[in-house]
Each structure stands twice: as structure tokens, then as C-alpha cells.
Amino acid sequence: MSITTGRQEIVSELQRAEKFLLTTHENPDGDALGSLLGMHLILDQLGKDTVMFMSANQFPLPYEYQRMPLEKVARELPADLNDRVVVFLDCGNIDRMPVDFLHEAHLHVLNIDHHHDNTRFGDANLVVGHASCTGEILWDLARDLGVELTPELAEALYIALVTDTGKFMFENTTPKAHEMAADLIAAGVQPQEAHRKLYEGLPFARLELLSRALNAVQRHDGGQLTLTHLTREDFKESNAVESDSEGVVDHLRGVEGTVVAGLVRELLEVEGRRKVSLRATDKTVDVSIIARGFGGGGHRQAAGFTTDVPLDELVERLRREISAQL
Ligand SMILES: [Mn+2]
């Protein structure tokens, strides 16, 4: 396995192969889906045969992405998988994949991602830690490949950009992120329309779930850790699905004194398992270190993991790890 591959090498690989399987991480976000669709549209313009794949248990997609043109995403692996180059997009870690199909076949894997803690699991790895989103890497690749920014491609990449930068407000909002936005808007993206598609017209269940989450907020160590917990009952009684908890943690990070905001939610499928999302308000605490300690990962200011550790013990460990970094 190579450690890091240059962009030119990835460009050559994309030009050379004819058949691809594209996939992304489980619980896909806007960057995951925007990159999946974006890469499909890029390779399509080059006349390649591409299959977008996500395992069936990832559907239905979170509400905000249901209006993206993702009807073609396959839920089963194609029979000719062995003939395809597999491209992982926005996956920091192979364990975040919904289907463990890599062990079944001798596949050639390209890993295109922007997580600084990417494990470089591919045969070729284009990991650009300073890219605002994986979509930004694709924007560069599209130019290298001489691909035209059609309105459809521009919108897919814009969704990746707008969601991963928290609407251009997180620390990854670089000058380049804004240059990319300008280019995409010039190519036909309507920002207000994209905003409405992503962030408005949401199901009422989300508001109900949010109100429960806000009612359950706990503050520890003078608010350094501001945390909430959603139970399976909360989901059931709100008529909410797991992805409806997306964005809850952002309400907590905005509170005075918060260093780390956390959402702990019980998984609906596995009893006793919880998913934890952490957000750091500034650079004093690197939450990806905490997440890796629990087998997860992510970015310095946004990371997550799943765990069987009971809630009280989990909170104690989080408090300890935060103070250890301060
Ligand atoms: Mn991303």
C-alpha cells in the first residue's frame, strides 16, 4: 500500500480504468453524497462505466438529501465487481464502511478524502487534509481531467461544500472554499435554492426531537462539556429517524462557556449501543483524539464514534479527556 498519492497519479488512474464502483461512508452527510454524485458525473463525462453503491440499510437517506438526484445509487454490489476500480470518497477509515466487501475480492482501491486522520487504506490514497471537503478535491480533479462544470455537477459539489463548512462558518472555510463557491455559482448553482433544498421543508419530527434534546441538556465542569442524550423512546415518540438528530449538536456548541458539545444517542438497531458526535468550539481541544480513543475518528473540531460504554461512565471519560487536553 502506498501512503499518499499525488493528484496527478490519481488523475492517470481515473483516465486509465474504464469501470468503477464509487462508494462513501455510512450515515452519509452532504459531502459524502455530493462527492459520490460528483465523481459519478465527472466519470460519466469521460465516458466511463460507473456504479454508485451504498448498502441497503443506509436508505432512506436523511431528509435533506432526498431531493438530490441519487436514484441510480445501487443497493447491491454489481456482479462484475472484480472488474471495477473501487473509489472510496470521504471515508477516513475503512471501518466506517457499511459493507465489508473488501476482503471478499482482490480489488484495486482508490481512497479520496480530506480527513487528516485517514488510515490510507487504499492502493492509492489522495488525502488532502487542508481541503474544506472531499468535494473540493473533486473540484480540482474535474479541472485536471478537463471536465466541464455542468449545473448538475456544480450543485453536487456545492452541497458537499456548504454542508461540510457549516454554511461557510467552520474553521475549514478557507479562501479556496469561497473561490470554489464562486466558481460553482458561476456554473449555475442557485445558493438560495440549494439552501431551501437542504435546510428547509424539514419534517416536523425534527423539531420535536430537537425539543427533547434541548430539554435533556447537561452541563459539566462549568459548561466546558455541554452534552445531551437522546433515547430510543425519544425517537419513537417524536416519530423521528436516526438522521433526524443531525444538527442537534450545533445548537449546543453555541452556548457560552462550551469547549466541547456532544450528542449521545441510542442506536435504534443495536440495544445498548450509542453514537456520540463531538464538536469543539475552538482549537483548544482536538475531539478527533478523543474519538479515536473510542475507535472512531474525524476532524479536530468535529468527530464521532459508537460505543457500548454506559452513559454515566461515558460522560466521566469525556470530562477526563477534555480536561487532560486543556
Ligand atoms: Mn467530508
Structure description:
The chain has 326 residues and is an alpha/beta fold. The chain has two domains: 8-199, Alpha-Beta Complex (inorganic pyrophosphatase (n-terminal core)); 205-325, Roll (Diaminopimelate Epimerase, Chain A, domain 1), CATH 3.10.310. Helices cover 37% and strands 17% of the residues. The chain contains eleven helices and eleven strands. Strands 6-7-8-9-11-10 form a six-stranded mixed β-sheet, sandwiched between helices. The chain has a five-stranded parallel β-sheet with strand order 2-1-3-4-5, with helices on one face. Strand 1, helix 2 and strand 2 (49-53) form a beta-alpha-beta unit. Helix 2 runs parallel beside helix 3 (134-144), helix 2 packs antiparallel against helix 4 (151-164) and helix 4 (151-164) packs antiparallel against helix 5 (175-186). The chain is globular. The two termini are 36 Å apart.
Give a count of the beta strands, DSSP E runs of length 2 or more.
11
Helicity, as a percent range: 25-40%
Q: Could you tell me how far the N terminus lies from the C terminus, measured between alpha carbons in angstroms?
A: 36 Å
Main β-sheet: number of strands, strand sense, barrel status? 6 strands, mixed
